[in-house]
Write a sequence for this structure.
């Protein structure tokens, strides 16, 4: 892309860190990652057709051509992953936990889809046993798609959020989530009060923020359903507990935007409803932003907040074409989200493909290479969530990885066996890969799927 994003300079890391002192494993694979942002660095893709990643205690110690790593570490046991593609684990920056069982409500615009599909299901999360089952389905879906970190829209019920954190902890997923809060225009049982939003949020933060791999995200559903009082309670949590993340929705659908305008007559625009409350900052991720104004883009860039682009959801709900070029030109950071259940599944491969299609089809769209798609599905999310130990295979980062190994006889297997380069194989993975091609997933060096 044309405009450098000054907010996330590439990490300068030595090629090899300290020598291992105890058992390390050398993974041999065709691997690809984007240690840099390809929108600002043309040679951002690092592809090794016969690569080696030396991993100890869940951390990558060395990365490069297998032969080089082998010479330096002749005794490390080798795990041979050749025959597929090894990528950094995917990072989904917008996905709804209580909606996994209502994926596929096609054909409705946002507000009708919420009324008819999403909110009735979200009301069921009051039942803790039900919520526990949903948490299993949801996290199984994420990991099964190769996602190792997710910014998750939680539930309106504190017990269901506890259930999510418990399941995330059990499985090892890196998860950032929180209580969803609203006090109008949804359904009565999903409404809360500012005081209760603060009290329940605080209790969850004290239990889960920074516990193991979990972090807390303050989460008003959207300004349409959140009064100034609720937004102020959210801001109070952000002030009282430094290091929290913030997430919500913005500028998704024209009817939604008009309703927000009517509800906040003093606000300059949609972003201003969050901005006035002090909720727009480096740790803010706002989903969709399909219809932003120039002022909103410049304020988002100035505050270094992220727009989570959810192309399958935007297509399924008919929300519109995401103006990626305007975001990049304004210097707004962009990451990728599946937006299950408005989105159509957990695979960030599919989201990457849909992003590619939409940019191809829209006037002034940004041509997206395989490197752009991989970046959006991995490092861009790590940057959005300020998790610098994830997102790529640079030494010093956690070994969060997905091994794509299509079944013999499938078209993707044929492409992998005959691809002229790893980059061609990567393009095919985005074009035709699915969760069925995910053979193994690691988080922090632990195998969480496959063997
Ligand atoms: O895509 C969306 N999914 C949701 O659940 C939602 N809630 C508010 N705005 C929303 N947009
Ligand atoms: Zn959403």
């Amino acid at each position: 892309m044309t405009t450098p994003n000054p907010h996330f300079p590439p990490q300068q890391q030595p090629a090899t860190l300290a020598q291992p002192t105890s058992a390390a494993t050398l993974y041999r694979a065709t691997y690809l990652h984007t240690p840099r942002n390809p929108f600002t660095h043309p040679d951002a893709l690092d592809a090794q057709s016969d690569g080696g990643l030396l991993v100890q205690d869940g951390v990558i110690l060395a990365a490069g051509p297998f032969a080089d790593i082998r010479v330096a570490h002749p005794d490390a046991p080798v795990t041979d992953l050749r025959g597929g593609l090894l990528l950094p684990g995917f990072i989904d920056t917008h996905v709804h936990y209580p909606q996994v069982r209502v994926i596929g409500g096609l054909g409705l615009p946002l507000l009708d889809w919420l009324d008819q599909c999403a909110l009735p299901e979200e009301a069921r999360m009051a039942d803790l046993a039900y919520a526990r089952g949903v948490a299993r389905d949801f996290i199984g879906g994420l990991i099964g798609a190769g996602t190792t970190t997710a910014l998750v829209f939680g539930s309106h019920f504190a017990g269901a959020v506890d259930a999510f954190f418990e399941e995330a902890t059990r499985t090892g997923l890196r998860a950032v989530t929180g209580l969803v809060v609203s006090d109008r225009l949804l359904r009565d049982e999903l409404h809360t009060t500012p005081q209760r939003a603060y009290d329940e949020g605080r209790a969850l933060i004290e239990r889960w923020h920074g516990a193991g791999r979990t972090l807390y995200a303050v989460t008003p559903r959207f300004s349409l359903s959140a009064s100034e009082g609720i937004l102020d309670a959210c801001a109070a949590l952000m002030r009282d507990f430094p290091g929290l993340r913030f997430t919500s929705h913005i500028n998704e659908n024209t009817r939604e935007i008009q309703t927000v305008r009517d509800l906040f007559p003093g606000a300059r625009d949609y972003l201003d409803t969050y901005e006035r409350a002090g909720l727009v900052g480096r740790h803010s991720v706002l989903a969709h932003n399909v219809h932003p104004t120039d002022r909103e883009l410049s304020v988002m860039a100035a505050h270094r907040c992220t727009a989570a682009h959810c192309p399958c959801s935007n297509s399924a709900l008919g929300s519109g074409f995401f103006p990626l070029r305007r975001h990049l030109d304004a210097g707004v950071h962009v990451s990728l989200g599946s937006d299950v259940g408005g989105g159509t599944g957990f695979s960030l491969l599919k989201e990457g493909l849909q992003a590619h299609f939409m940019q191809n089809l829209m006037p002034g769209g940004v041509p997206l290479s395989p490197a752009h798609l991989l970046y959006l599905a991995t490092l861009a999310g790590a940057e959005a969530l300020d998790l610098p130990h994830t997102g790529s295979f640079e030494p010093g980062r956690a070994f969060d990885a997905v091994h794509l190994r299509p079944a013999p006889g499938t078209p993707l297997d044929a492409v992998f066996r005959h691809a002229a380069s790893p980059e061609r194989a990567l393009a095919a993975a985005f074009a035709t890969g699915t969760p069925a091609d995910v053979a193994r997933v690691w988080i922090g060096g632990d195998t969480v799927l496959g063997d």
In short: The chain has a mean pLDDT of 95. The chain is about 35% helix and 20% strand.
